[in-house]
Amino acid sequence: MKRRLASLWKTARLTANLMAGVPDYENYVARQRRHNPNAPVMSEQQFQDYCRKRRCGVNGGRCC
After folding, report:
1. How far apart are CA 20 and CA 26, in angstroms?
2. Among 39, 11, 40, which residue's Cα sits nearest to residue 27?
3. At what angle do helices 44-56 and 25-35 cross, to 10 degrees?
4. More reliable by pLDDT, 58 or 5
5. Where in the chain does DSSP place strands (E)?
6. How far apart are CA 60 and CA 55, in angstroms?
7. 36-60: per-residue pLDDT in tens?
8. Rg of the Cα trace of the chain?
9. Average pLDDT, the chain
10. Which single residue of 5, 17, 62, 63 has CA 20 to 30 Å from 38?
11. pLDDT digits (tens, 9 = 90+) for 17-41
């Protein structure tokens, strides 16, 4: 029962974060290792910077 609640909580937290635009580093690492095992994996800080730049643009996201 406890394991089931922990799993549900993790899923709910991940869903809320993704809806708010917060990327999940653990999923990125797992996917990268599964699909590109020889490719380097970004550090968590690099990953967060990459996602922020994709979401907001290089210059902060505002053009005007």
Report:
1. 17
2. 11
3. 100
4. 5
5. none
6. 9
7. 999 999 999 999 899 888 887 766 5
8. 15
9. 85
10. 17
11. 888 877 889 889 999 999 999 999 9
Alpha-carbon gap, residue 62 to 13, rounded angstroms: 29
The pLDDT, as a whole number, for residue 57 is 73
Burial 12-48 (b: 16+ CB within 10 A, else e): eeeeeeeeeeeeebeebeeeeeeeeeeeeebeeeebe
Look at the block and give the residue holding tokens 């406890």. Answer: 2
Nearest to 28 by CA among 19, 18, 20: 18
Q: Check pLDDT > 80 for residue 15.
A: yes
What type of residue sits at position 12?
Answer: A
What tokens appear for 10 in the block? 């993790």
